[in-house]
């Protein structure tokens, strides 16, 4: 049957210019026995609503999964330099093209990106921990099996977004990396973090199968182990990235200020695991009573100086610094209290690479920015409807409750539509209204200048449960 690209129906006029990234994946929750991937080349990839359409028809044996649909969209506001060639060009030339701005979900082949980085970038004498070796993956592996995975992702300004899923094996990985002061840290995460997590989780599954204990204790071991794997992957990414910055900072001193927020969501069967550093958010929409508004539950912490607990931690950790926070920022520079990278607020030698007013004159007791993430696990219930993942640009304009109600209403009115793209379109409308523009006028403002009106915005909406909507996944360029 020929696939047709559907133009999305929304309750506001479509912007005159297309959003930078939009991808969708919708599962077929019926019970069959085989699966297939269909690709169709459409006529003009430069025309709105046309491009390459990939459809994943999945016919499953009885297999429980906690998600039925995923959609994502993003919009640029920041102008970025060309790729900086950090890591000797490996990130820019070899890894990112495989995930950057794809036309749709497609099969994910095994990626040797981590081994490339280990062999070609890291100094063999550098004292950086590496993940424990795990058995080689095989097609019979049931968790994060690359043979059965689909992937999509892209870039919007300094934001990077990534999604990998296996409908057959019942898991979904999503990552939003909100870069700042440059795109290098977000590029690094987009190129390596999934591989690092996959390696650790494969090792965990292998170890859990060796347990000679009850099923309940094995499940508990696995759940705790997943959280540990996420934390270990972030610690490894932080070590590797700062090591690379140190190797190149004499030629590129600006790299010491580059960083990224991190938001990762991993759904496996009936559990969702969340990790975050920074101010991106994961919001769960849940509700018990039919007809009542859904409740918005924030599954992440907000790591900024505006968070009282974060502010208190910074002050307590620097008792000899009379002004660890001033002008509403850490050392007057950054509102974020946790992030990957941003080495000049973590190490004195990196701060010393900066000149003049860029250098912090009284860096008394670094680090001032932490790399310890917040993590949480949640068992998906029948009352949980969907999860919204978003960079902070989304929440500059909408509260948690507003994004939940906007998505809920849209899904009710447009059961086969794209809720993530709808959220971004509503944000464009609100930003334009705030600036006194029409949406078309706002989208004609060049990136860079448009940052005056809104930040880079990245949104992923994950529809939970086994409610079938359609079996088509599509992307608009």
UniProtKB/TrEMBL annotation:
InterPro entries xrefs: PP2C, PPM-type-like_dom_sf, PPM-type_phosphatase-like_dom
Molecular function terms in GO for this entry?
metal ion binding; protein serine/threonine phosphatase activity
| Parts of the chain that traverse the membrane | none
For this UniProt record, give its keywords in alphabetical order, as a comma-separated list: Hydrolase, Magnesium, Manganese, Metal-binding, Protein phosphatase
Q: Known EC number(s)?
A: 3.1.3.16
Q: Which Pfam families does the protein's record reference?
A: PP2C (PF00481)
Q: Which residues form the PPM-type phosphatase domain?
A: 143-464
The molecule here is called protein-serine/threonine phosphatase
């Amino acid at each position: 049957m020929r696939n047709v690209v559907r133009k999305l129906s929304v309750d506001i006029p479509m912007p005159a210019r297309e959003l930078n990234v939009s991808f969708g994946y919708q599962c077929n929750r019926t019970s069959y026995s085989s699966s297939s991937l269909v690709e169709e080349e459409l006529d003009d990839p430069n025309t709105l609503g046309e491009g390459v359409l990939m459809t994943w028809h999945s016919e499953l044996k009885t297999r429980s999964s906690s998600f039925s649909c995923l959609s994502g969209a993003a919009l640029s506001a920041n102008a970025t330099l060309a790729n900086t060639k950090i890591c000797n060009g490996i990130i820019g030339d070899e890894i990112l093209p495989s995930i950057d701005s794809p036309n749709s979900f497609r099969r994910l082949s095994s990626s040797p990106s981590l081994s490339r980085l280990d062999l070609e970038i890291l100094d063999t004498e550098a004292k950086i921990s590496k993940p424990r070796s795990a058995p080689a993956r095989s097609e019979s592996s049931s968790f994060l099996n690359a043979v059965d995975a689909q992937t999509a992702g892209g870039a919007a300004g300094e934001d990077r977004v990534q999604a990998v899923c296996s409908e057959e094996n019942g898991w979904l990985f999503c990552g939003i990396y909100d870069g700042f002061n440059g795109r290098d840290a977000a590029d690094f995460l987009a190129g390596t973090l999934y591989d690092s997590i996959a390696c650790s989780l494969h090792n965990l599954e292998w170890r859990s199968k060796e347990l000679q204990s009850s099923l309940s204790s094995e499940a508990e071991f696995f759940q705790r182990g997943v959280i540990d794997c996420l934390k270990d992957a972030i610690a490894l990414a932080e070590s590797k990235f700062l090591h690379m910055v140190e190797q190149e900072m004499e030629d590129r001193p600006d790299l010491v200020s580059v960083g990224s927020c991190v938001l990762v969501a991993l759904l496996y069967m009936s559990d969702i695991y969340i990790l975050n550093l920074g101010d991106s958010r994961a919001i769960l929409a849940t509700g018990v009573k039919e007809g009542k508004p859904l409740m918005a539950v924030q599954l992440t912490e907000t790591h900024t100086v505006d968070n009282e607990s974060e502010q208190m931690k910074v002050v307590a950790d620097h008792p000899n610094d009379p002004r660890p926070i001033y002008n509403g920022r850490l050392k007057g520079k950054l509102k974020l209290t946790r992030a990957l990278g941003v080495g000049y607020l973590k190490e004195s030698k990196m701060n010393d690479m900066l000149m003049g007013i860029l250098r912090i004159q009284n860096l008394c007791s670094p680090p001032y920015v932490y790399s310890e993430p917040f993590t949480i696990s949640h068992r998906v219930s029948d009352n949980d409807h969907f999860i919204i993942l978003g960079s902070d640009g989304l929440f500059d304009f909408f509260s948690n409750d507003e994004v939940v109600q906007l998505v809920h209403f849209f899904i009710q009115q447009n059961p086969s539509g794209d809720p993530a793209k709808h959220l971004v379109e509503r944000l464009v409308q609100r930003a334009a209204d705030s600036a006194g523009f029409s949406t078309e006028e706002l989208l004609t403002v060049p990136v860079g200048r448009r940052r005056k009106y809104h930040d880079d915005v990245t949104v992923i909406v994950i529809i939970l449960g086994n409610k079938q909507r359609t079996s088509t996944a599509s992307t608009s360029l």
